[in-house]
Amino acid sequence: MPIMFKDWVPANTHPLNVVEVPEDSVASVEQVTRPPLYEVYMRMAEELAKRSTCARLRVGTVLTDAYLEHVVSIGYNGNARGFPNHCDSDEVGMCGCIHSEMNALVKSPGDLRDKVAFITASPCKMCAKLIVQANVSHVFYRDPYRNQDGLQVLEQAGLVAVHYTRWKDEWR
Ligand SMILES: [Zn+2]
Ligand SMILES: [Zn+2]
Q: What pTM value is reported for the model?
């Protein structure tokens, strides 16, 4: 039976997005008339990124359960609680901010399987390893980070990473 993708994004192989459709009804597959949940959570991550106090790059993260029913935790990059609301240093690579993904992961239960991550930028190498370790199955990201090592880590670990931009400008 042909496979269709509810949000019309073939790269999105998350189980809730894939449907088998009988050959004779392929033409009648639903149009996308409202924001897919994947897009809604990505927009939440974009809103969170606006709260970042990092001078280098502002990133937001939303973690959900496997069914996209519950937000498990949220994060954006910045200094630790009680510390000054700015980077420790202007030096490249030394800003000292806790990454958005790390902030979300420390607040999420590690034993909850198949979590889904929505991040405004693709993760760095260390965040990617933490994402793997925290039992995340799918990572949706809006913009590829200049260094793609993190995406390689996700691929190596068998996670699905989706560059999610298809509905970026719709319903605004
Ligand atoms: Zn910073
Ligand atoms: Zn990182």
A: 0.96
